Structures are given as C-alpha cells and as structure tokens.
Amino acid sequence: MIIILKSGISPRQEASVLKEIRKRGYRPHVMRGVARTVIGAIGDELTHQSLETLMTAFPGVVESVMPVQKRYKLVSREAHPSPSTVRVRENVIGGRIFHVMAGPCSVEREKQLLKTAEAVKAAGATILRGGAFKPRTSPYEFQGLGVKGLKLLAKARRETGLPVITELLSETHAELVAEYADILQIGARNSQNFQLLIAAAKTGKPVLLKRGLSMKVEEWLLAGEYVLANENPNLMLCERGIRTFETYTRNTLDLSAIPIIKKESHCPVVIDPSQGAGRADLVAAMCKGAVAMGADALLIEVHPNPAEAWSDGAQQVSLEIFAKLMRELRPFILAAGREPAPVPN
Ligand code: PEP
Ligand code: MN
Hints:
Elements: E1 2-5, H1 11-23, E2 27-32, E3 37-42, H2 54-57, E4 62-66, E5 86-88, E6 91-93, E7 97-103, H3 110-123, E8 127-129, H4 147-160, E9 164-167, H5 174-180, E10 183-186, H6 194-202, E11 207-210, H7 217-229, E12 235-239, H8 257-264, E13 269-271, H9 273-277, H10 283-292, E14 297-301, H11 319-335, E15 339-340
Parallel strand pairs: 7-8, 7-14, 7-15, 8-9, 9-10, 10-11, 11-12, 12-13, 13-14
Antiparallel strand pairs: 1-3, 1-4, 2-3, 5-6
Helix pairs in contact: 3-4, 3-11, 6-7, 10-11
The protein binds phosphoenolpyruvate and manganese (II) ion.
Manganese (II) ion binds near residues 301 and 312.
C-alpha cells in the first residue's frame, strides 16, 4: 500500500501513523519529498487488517491510501503473460481459430433446438448455446424447461456433435448442470454471486463469466479471480452490455472491454451482441466490431422463428440471418489474424 501524508504535518503525527502501520503487521518505508511524505507499507492484506482505514483513523494526517498491486492476481497478465486457452472437447477457445457459440436464448422444444443446432453447425458455429434455467427479471415470465432442457441439450449434442454451453443459476444445481454442459455460463445477474462462482469452479468445467449489468472491469476481473483461485484455470470473460442512460439499445455493448481485458488479463474474451444490443438488426455490426477489436469468440442468440421465441425474441436472429452473418464475418476474422472454424461438409 502507498500512504500519502498531508503537507505540513508534524514529526509526531508522522510517527503516530508509522506506529499504527507497524501495529497492523506491515513494514513501513518512508520517502520524504519536498512538500510531502509518502509511506510504502509492505505486508499481506489477506492475513492482516487492511490499511485502507488509515484515512479515517488519521483524518488530519493521511491524505490517501492506494494499493500498489492490482487486486486480482491469477487472472492478470503478470501471472500469465501469454494468452490462455480453454479447451472445450476438441475446440480450443483463445487460440488461432475464432469460435462462434450460437443457439436459442431458451431451450423451448425439441424441434426448435435440434433445428437450430443443425443450422448453426452448418453455418460454422462450433458450440451450441441454450438456456435451460433462465434468470428472468419477472417471476411471471418463462423460467426455462430446467432438467428437461438440459436433456434436450444433451440430445442436440449427440445428434450434432456440438458441445453445449448453458447457464448455471443456482449453487444447488452445480453438479446437475455440469453433468450436461461442456461450459457453465454464469449470467450477468449472478456475476458477483461468489458462492455460485466457487461452486461452478469446483465442477472443473470451463466457466464463461458474463459481465454484470453495472459491473466495473475491476469487479469483473475479481469475480473471475474466484474461479481461478478455486483451481479452475478454464475461465472466459463475456461482455454482454452494461446499463447506461441510452434507450435505443437494451444495454450498451462495451467493446472497449476487449482491449482492456486483453491488456489486463490472459483469459479469452467472448462478446455477446444479443443481450448487448437487444436488437436483432444490430447483431451483425456488433459481431464485426467485436472480431475486429480482438475478441476470441462470440455468443449469439439464434432462433428458427424469433417472433415466436419464449424469451428475448427481439434480439434473436433467424437461421438465415445467422448463416449470412457467418459468411460476412469471414473477412473480419481473417483480417484480425484468426481463422474461421472449418464449416462441416
Ligand atoms: C442469456 O444469455 O440468455 C442471458 C440471460 O444472459 P445475461 O446473463 O447476459 O443476461
Ligand atoms: Mn437471452
């Protein structure tokens, strides 16, 4: 920690701060400038009382207290300078191949899911998405098919070979959902549910952590730290739009998160343009922007008949639009120095 003292303080006041720093178990190093004194305190915050309260404990003496180190460690670039990759069956996310995860917002019926799975696979998607447990803002909206939805996802995987990503809503379902899913999605509304993050990490399955609706990048990285700190290195960070004052979009897709996360962290970055904009007509443009800015993968909502979707109808693209979008993305993927996944014959 760096502790900056106010100008014009007496040696006695300085000594009292130094005494308190030592009392809390830290070693202080004093640096005296012309106008003010700065103290570097060395010690471990996990096992000792934080020094953050020095400002309130010595209001007339301490000007500010700042951490030297980033609060996240395992997710940081310093801990792992090269980009990390996440293996999902035979797919490697974060490597040379650009991956697209696609499928309906919610699993509704067998036919809807299988038809979507076949179509997104044919268009070049490598992972099937679909919510079985849905986090709905209102308790009167469709909550998902639950276990029946998980079983349908497993069936779609058997028939298409596509691995499956689905949301884990509750700690009590961790083992159950992990039995069916290849990637556990932690939704925006649960992104700081730390017990859920720990439970997800402990299943050993790859975790895709959405950014919360009002989450700062630092909070998002710290939430991701919970996964890595619980011995699960397979973390992907997914930007899905944050809440702003703008009403033309459902959320504001913060594409600046891509270069920021790439700079701060080694974890693969996934962009969800569907929750991000909340508008099917904006999905293609958002995807192109995300690819160009260095995202590693996309998570896109696709429905055979968006007008009849049981959730998020306005933002899901049809099978035809998805196929067109995948064709349009190719030059962007190549320009970004990546390769599109091979399209099955
Ligand atoms: C979803 O992917 O359908 C979803 C509910 O996402 P989010 O948690 O980002 O709102
Ligand atoms: Mn959705």
